[in-house]
Amino acid sequence: MRVAFSTDLHFDVNHLTASDYFQAQKDYLEQQNISVYVLGGDTFNDFQTTVRYVDALQAFLGNTVQLYFLAGNHDMVKGVTYAELESFDHPAYLHHRVVSLPGTDYALVGNNGWYDYTLAPAGQGKTAEDYFRWKKAFWIDSAIDSPLSDMKRMDRVLKQVQADLATVAAQRKRALFVTHFVPRQDFLIYAGDRPYWNMATALMGSSRLGGLLAASPVVDTVVFGHLHHRDAPLLAAGQVYLHTPLGYGLKRAWEWQSTDFMTEWRNTLMIREIPEK
């Protein structure tokens, strides 16, 4: 079975009409023999728009490819509350779910994720309150409904992931884990001359999540996005980490390597082939 992942498509930020690409995406997924396609967050700046997109794309794909999705921070800024993100009932919504992949010894495990400032560079001399105030003043996440502190929200993520991995272990399966936020410091780039970015790194993810995943004997693959730079696959202690977000194709923020969405989508599609029984 072949499972594909995309993150950070940002259709609205990139001023793209998503349905214009349905046929080309379907054709490519079928050519690549993809059975499952997972969106790892930041599809739109509105959760309800993301849900409508997922429904429309799944209807277009038919029974050929099964679609799943998570919410990234951009999806969270409009059209959804924190309580709704935690309880949303939709067959394709992968947050805090374990989905067994039929005919294999593998399961998808999804979690939207969050952050706890543990990926900020050492030696900045900043407190949690400093990072929180900076976020509220300068970062898009200030618009996200969050009744919990960032640390407590991340604590909940860790409990969910731990429980879901225990479910996978009880099923004697291997996990393909998908999240939006960054789980390892290896992927962060710090710059002494960019204090704005160094503050933002606190909001990228959690090294505590990375530690939990690294310690789990059932985790086979970890897929994430959010950083908007592309990395070669990282093999660490027998686990594969995949991070090739599509990102922005804007004059003010050009992160693409071509001028064409489909080229970027194909080049950033992360594919794992897993053995069937």
From TrEMBL:
Calcineurin-like phosphoesterase domain span: 1-229
Family annotation (InterPro entries): Calcineurin-like_PHP, Metallo-depent_PP-like, Phosphoesterase_putative
Pfam families membership: Metallophos
Record-given protein name: Metallophosphoesterase
Source species: Schleiferilactobacillus harbinensis
